[in-house]
Amino acid sequence: MSTSATSASPSVAPTPSVSPRDLVPGVIGMALVGSSVTVSRSLVGAPLFASQAVRYAAAALILVALARVARVPLVRPRGREWLWLAGIAATGLVLFNVAVVRGVAHAEPAVIAVAVASVPILLGLVGPLLEGRRPSRRVLLAAPVVVAGAVLVEGTGRTDAAGVGWAALALACEAGFTLLAVPVLGRHGAWGVSVHAVWLGAVMLAGLTVFAGGPSSGPASGPAAFTAGLGSLTAGQWAAVGYLAVLVTAVAFLLWYRTVAAVGSGRAGLLTGIAPLAAAGAGMLGGGGTPGPVVWLGLVVVIAGLALGLRGGDARG
Known about the structure:
Elements: H1 20-39, H2 48-70, H3 81-103, H4 109-117, H5 119-130, H6 137-154, H7 161-179, H8 182-212, H9 223-231, H10 235-263, H11 265-270, H12 274-288, H13 293-310
Helix pairs in contact: 1-10, 1-12, 2-8, 2-10, 3-7, 3-8, 4-6, 4-7, 4-12, 5-6, 5-7, 6-12, 6-13, 8-9, 8-10
């Protein structure tokens, strides 16, 4: 399946059947993203820009090393590709993480997780158009089902006006993370998009720390703000940064873009419903107790939505 956006008008060709093998990477990637909401709570008091810059710099080094081991060629972006990749970095990495970390300071993780799980509707509408296809009726019917299940799993959660704003920003940035990758996945693949987006994100965050300081760095600016910010991290915060760098960035990015390239952004978007399930599971493992009947009902609804949108055949039927 091509992920190019060069088609002049949407194609009417039937959407091919989805192989479970193509979906598994996306499921795992979204599960890791869901777990990051709870992990990010430990970074509420940390210097945001500095800690995230280290996260993405470490992830970029890991990705480049793995690409060399796997003998995957990485090509240099050209022309407008720089804009698409920079857009992924600015929205899906920089602003998204600002929204998550700042959002959980004003709202329970459920609020942010449900916002992220609402992405299927946006991806189902916009994604196929970028890929040169018409939106799938089946995916558009399944997306609200998945979102409804996510709301049942996570609940509405406690929040204030600021929390709602951060959740809305997280939703927009999560959609941008996938949609802005569609025009460049064809040439760069999952490896190239992941590597370039990650190192660009690291540069942006480091620049924000050096030139603007950070939300938690106080009045300091310049290189001193960066080193002072890193020096203030606790052992638990360093562990959180490491988890986010290795699993939620290097691993999850590769897995997610592989699925987007294989099945299209519309269908892949349904898998974001896995994120709140993972967030609920992480909360339970963290001492949140056994889920109640409503959570289990939500789990069934999410699975039903995924089955509706991902079954084989013509997805527009």
